[in-house]
Amino acid sequence: MPTNIQWTDLTDNIIRAKDGGWWCQKISPGCAKCYSEKLNQNTFFGGNKLPYSGQPPELILDTEAIRKWKFQKKPKKHFVASMTDVFGEWVPRSWQHEMLDGMVVAPLQTFQILTKRPSIMLSSIEAWLEANGLDKLPNNIWVGTSIENRQTLEQRSSILAQIPAYVRFWSAEPLLKDLGDISQFLQNIYWIICGGESGTNSRPCHLEWLLSIVQQCQSFQKSVFVKQVGANPYFQQQQFKTRDKKGGDISEFPLQIQVQEFPNVIY
How far apart are CA 4 and CA 9, in angstroms? Predict the structure, then answer.
């Protein structure tokens, strides 16, 4: 379905709770104020009021949505499973492979898969590649991992780097800490999305953290997309006021971080 997420065109939530809504399992500090869990609490938007913790409800895979990908003629960027983690421990590997099968026969579409569990993504994709006699993902399948602080950077980026793909990316959103020097991790990354947290009681994001990412990406000729400064941004140790409640209006960003690039896919 259409979305307001600036770096994609559509969100395809192919995994849902059988009785409606969605489910996921929180895993790290970036999950604490999960927008998906908050949306899932609202039955008006199709949620089921379940928390993203405990045991999962009965889930279903939307095989019809997957089947339709190959019939879509207009190229679009698809953020797959925006309401959950398709590489969660609770997701059958057969579902992950069925998803990849649907992507490979839809070369006009670009699929953006984001996980907080890159070790499962790596294992599942390696098995799928072997089963299909491939040594690399097709160029229309982009794989990414979420990064919110230095710890998750060090834990997840090296695993993501092992996945044979044309585009590997990080989503450093919500960015909760300064990532510091990321130069040693950039060699195998092609794109970084970054931004501050939005919503009620958002944790602060210092714009210097975003600027550091932008400058380092530019130094290493990596694409970077500053999505938003968030609802609680700081700049030079002072609150940075924005009219947009999510801090998502690029015209309100300091000029140095008014950058919203997409990766150039290498064939």
Answer: 8
Q: What is the mean pLDDT of each run of 10 residues along the chain (267 residues)?
A: 92 98 98 96 95 97 98 98 98 98 98 98 98 98 98 98 98 98 96 96 98 98 98 97 97 98 79
* Alpha carbon distances (Å) from 250 to 54, 67, 82, 127, 198: 38, 36, 23, 41, 15
Report strand pairing: 15-17 vs 191-195. Answer: unpaired
Chain center to CA of 141: 13
Looking at residue 266, its pLDDT comes to 57
pTM: 0.97
Q: What are phi and psi of 12, to 5 degrees?
A: -115, 100
Which candidate, 225, 226, 228, 227, places its Cα nearest to that of 261? 225
3-state secondary structure of 16: strand
Q: For each of the domains in the chain, give its residue range(s) and CATH number, in order of start.
A: 62-257 (3.80.30)
Instruction: Determine which helix (DSSP H) or strand (DSSP E) holds 128, and give its type and residue range.
Output: helix 118-131
Q: Can you give the pLDDT at residue 33?
A: 96
Residue 101 structure tokens? 């099968």
Q: How many CA atoms lie within 13 A of 75 on its CB side?
A: 4
Inter-residue contact 122 to 163 (CB < 8 Å): yes
Q: What are phi and psi of 169, to 5 degrees?
A: -140, 160
